[in-house]
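Narrative summary of target 7.
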Amino acid sequence: MITIEGDREEHDSAANLEWARETERRLREAGGSGAYAGFAGVEEQAREDWTEQVYADSYDRLAAIEREYDPENVLRHNVNVDPRVAAETPADDDRPALPAPSPRAGTVRHTSPPNA
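Modeled conformation, tokenized:
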């Protein structure tokens, strides 16, 4: 894993940011791909293929599982595989099937903190 950081002092902020962007571009051209969710910056997370980079070869299978078990996208987070926009790929492969959701699971309600 390579982490690229450009420290930002007011007087050289633009130069450091450009250096970080150029270094990332060169590494990707050399064959680097993928992303590590815990070290991503704002620009990387804004990319359309952000979740595909994080989950790589597992993305299509995760999307199929999301469509089956969480079609309303209740269990979402910042590196979300959205079942409503994910590719239509079947979850079938040589791995064992996931257990069916419990009928006692109940309804999940979205609430906000009292001071929100």
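The first helix runs from residue 13 to 29.
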